[in-house]
Specification:
- It is a single chain.
- With 104 residues, the protein is mostly beta strands.
- It is built from no helices and seven strands.
- It has a single domain, classed as CD59, CATH 2.10.60.
- Strand 4 and strand 5 form a beta hairpin.
Length: 104
């Protein structure tokens, strides 16, 4: 009966990566653009936004493991100095563009 030794196997790491929009906008009515980045394994796409005033609408998009550690596939909202702030994370390609589901 054949036996196997632990050295007889080759273990290959499985890495999954996603593509996220990557950019920054500050003026209301503009967009983060079409630039994308390929995220490392376990990272997710994120979209952080804060609206302050009539014309200032800050949105930062990219990929992150740590920012999305407790917000996987959901949005978290808070208020800081009377400014509403929202951060959403998702784990599919290009899911962090403004106006996508969960990113209004």
């Amino acid at each position: 009966m054949p036996t196997s030794n632990p050295g007889d196997f080759v273990f290959l790491p499985v890495c999954f990566s996603i593509v996220c929009y990557n950019g920054l906008k500050v003026i209301q009515g503009t967009s983060i653009g079409d630039n994308t980045v390929t995220c490392g394994s376990a990272a997710q796409c994120y979209n952080m936004s804060a609206q302050a005033g009539q014309y200032l609408d800050v949105v930062k998009a990219g990929c992150s493991l740590w920012r999305c550690l407790f917000a996987s596939n959901r949005c978290i909202s808070t208020t800081f100095q009377k400014i509403p702030i929202s951060m959403c994370c998702c784990n599919t390609d290009r899911c962090n563009q403004g106006n996508a589901v969960g990113f209004e």
